[in-house]
Amino acid sequence: TDSVWSRTDGGSFTFTASLMPGTYDVYTWWTEWPSRYTAVPHQIRDGGTLLDTVNMNQQTNGGQWNLLGRYTFGGTAGVTILATPGTWSTAADAVRFVPVP
Predict the structure, then answer these.
(1) Which neighbouring-strand residues pair with 97?
(2) In terms of C-beta density within 10 A (0-12 exposed, 13-18 middle, 19 or more buried), how is residue 21 classed?
(3) pLDDT > 80? residue 99
(4) Of 44, 36, 41, 40, which Cα lies nearest the Cα of 16?
(5) DSSP string, 23-73
(6) Chain-centroid distance, C-alpha 29
(7) Nearest-angstrom CA–CA distance, 57 and 78
(8) How do residues 69-93 score in pLDDT, each as one tens digit?
């Protein structure tokens, strides 16, 4: 019921999951707020390997699952949401991995 957020430069939130190897749609959830950053970096990793970085506008589409993309994982998946410096805030409420048949 609570939103996790930060304004700390260099701060981050990391979500990890042990998955069956395969392809997954990766989603993230945040609370929408006027002070949220409009290009929050989301790093998608397969174990220690960076697969992609997707910037998301957290001033819109809050309170719903937002697709980051489709990725193939070997077993350990992770999403790191990077806090942005200054007066902007960054939310990190949840990450979801949905297997693709």
Answers:
(1) 26
(2) exposed
(3) yes
(4) 44
(5) EEEEEEE----TTB-SSEEEEEEETTEEEEEEEE-TTSSTTS-EEEEEEEE
(6) 8
(7) 20
(8) 999 999 899 999 998 777 788 999 9
The tokens of 57 are what?
A: 């506008």
Q: What is the pLDDT of residues 30-40, one digit of tens each?
A: 998 898 999 99
| Separation of first and last alpha carbons in the chain | 31
Classified as helix, coil or strand, 62 is coil
Region label for 61, one of left (φ > 0), alpha (ψ between -120 and 50) or beta (otherwise):
left
Q: Is it the case that residue 61 has pLDDT exceeding 80?
A: yes
Closest CA to 31 of 69, 67, 2, 68: 2
Buried b (16+ CB within 10 A) or exposed e, 65-80: ebebeebebeeebbbb
